[in-house]
Design brief:
Strand order of the largest sheet of chain A: 1-2
Strand order of the largest sheet of chain B: 9-2-11-10
Strand content of chain A: under 5%
Order of helices and strands of chain B: HHEEHEHHEHEEHEEHHEHEE
Radius of gyration of chain A: 23 Å
Number of domains of chain B: 2
Shape of chain B: globular
Oligomer: heterodimer
Number of strands of chain B: 11
Bound molecules: iron/sulfur cluster
Number of helices of chain B: 10
Largest sheet of chain A: 2 strands, antiparallel
């Protein structure tokens, strides 16, 4: 075997470069985000469906709601436990943002983490942020 | 987790079917051994105004000048977040005014009486019985509801503008640019639109749904009436019975639902 040292050194460098992203990010993995619930949402205790389903399925629910509202003109959702919601993302007290009134702390936390950029807010008017200087 | 997934699927199924009716829910209840699980429902507001076939009668004898129309147009545009764009080529209009010779093209002649010649007419989507826009839309973003209202699901609009080419009344506008900066005062109760979608009058579907009359009707001091064209007892039918009315381009066969008392 000739040039054993050179080959080994080359291999080491190669492996180091290939694995660079892994060890570079080692230790500073960002922790899973904790969306902050508004006081109103906390007080309500439960959402349209149980929390776990909400986490994984809210986008599908919104999609279904859209069709139900726009196509069938059914705008009220009753959980069956006596609680009703206005099937709307952004309009009124009983809509999604009526309760989850802080987009930055609630929606954006996970969306940013998961690097998804839903275009809801291109048309739906986000709830006004609580910080006084920041609006619209 | 298993359980919540199940309940989600139930919700999804019910919502997808768009029903709030008991029989199907009862099937759900009896099918899975969990008789006690709550049964979600979707339904419309009990106060909602409904009709077999919505129509509108505009009494133009109650209007004299553009000033009479301005507050009505403003009411519509304000609650629907219709932007006010400086460039007329980019203008977005749900409800606007035009001259007789443009509105009733096939009835126009040079020697028409002075009042009609100079009177501004309110124009809007006619919520046609046979809407060309619906036929043209490739994504079903534009569709006709059972009650005759021609609506848009803005989420689905891809901005191809086939509907605009198809509509014989020019009732549709295209968002060439982001409308948001041009909305003076946002109404939080209604979404805006985004660049690249078409929009038009929605017959105030969102207001009818909660028992309110369309904004233009409210702002018109009785000059605009909406109601059920299929109900012989309705106010619109009474107006049509007792007044001479015309529609826009009836010979095209689109069957507009907006009638004008002239
Ligand atoms: S007036 Fe035009 S946009 Fe309105 S329903 Fe008729 S074809 Fe469609
Ligand atoms: S512009 Fe939008 S609403 Fe019009 S035809 Fe195309 S997809 Fe349908």
């Amino acid at each position: 075997m000739y040039d054993k040292n050179k080959i080994v050194a080359g291999l080491v460098i190669f492996v180091a470069i290939v694995t660079f992203p892994f060890w570079y990010n080692l230790g500073n993995a960002s922790s899973a985000p904790e969306p902050k619930l508004s006081e109103k949402a906390k007080a309500a205790k439960e959402c349209v469906v149980p929390k776990e389903s909400m986490k994984s399925e809210h986008m599908r629910i919104l999609d279904l709601w859209r069709d139900t509202v726009v196509r069938d003109a059914n705008r009220i959702y009753n959980t069956g436990k006596g609680k009703t919601f206005n099937m709307s993302l952004s309009t009124g007290e009983e809509s999604c943002t009526g309760c989850h009134d802080n987009k930055a702390e609630f929606c954006d936390k996970c969306h940013n983490y998961a690097s998804v950029d839903p275009y809801c807010w291109d048309c739906h008017i986000a709830p006004k942020e609580k910080k006084p200087e920041e609006n619209k | 987790m298993e359980n919540s997934r199940r309940s989600f699927l139930k919700v999804a199924g019910i919502t997808a079917l768009g029903i709030g009716t008991k029989p199907v829910l009862d099937v759900f209840a009896s099918s899975g051994g969990h008789g006690e699980e709550p049964k979600p429902e979707v339904y419309s507001n009990e106060k909602a105004l409904t009709a077999e076939k919505w129509g509108m009668v505009i009494d133009t004898t109650k209007f004299h000048s553009a000033e009479d129309l301005a507050p009505i147009i403003e009411a519509c545009h304000k609650i629907h977040n219709v932007p006010d764009l400086p460039d007329s080529k980019h203008e977005i209009m749900w409800l606007w005014e035009d001259e007789y010779k443009h509105v009733f093209t096939h009835r126009e002649h040079e020697l028409i009486n002075d009042r009609i010649k100079h009177l501004p007419f309110l124009v809007l989507c006619n919520h046609c019985e046979k809407p060309a826009c619906v036929r043209a839309c490739p994504t079903k973003a534009t569709f006709k509801r059972d009650d005759g209202i021609v609506l848009m699901d803005f989420h689905r609009c891809i901005g191809c503008r086939f509907c605009m080419a198809a509509c014989p009344y020019g009732s549709r506008s295209f968002n060439f640019r982001d409308p948001r900066p041009f909305i003076k005062e946002e109404n939080k109760e209604f979404p805006t639109r985004m660049k690249g979608v078409v929009e038009k009058c929605n017959f105030c579907a969102e207001r009818l749904a909660v028992g309110k009359m369309p904004a233009c009707v409210e702002a018109s001091n009785g000059a605009i009436t909406v109601g059920d064209l299929d109900d012989p007892e309705s106010e619109v039918r009474e107006l049509l019975r007792t007044n001479y009315t015309i529609r826009r381009k009836p010979d095209l066969g689109a069957g507009p639902s907006v009638y004008y008392i002239v």
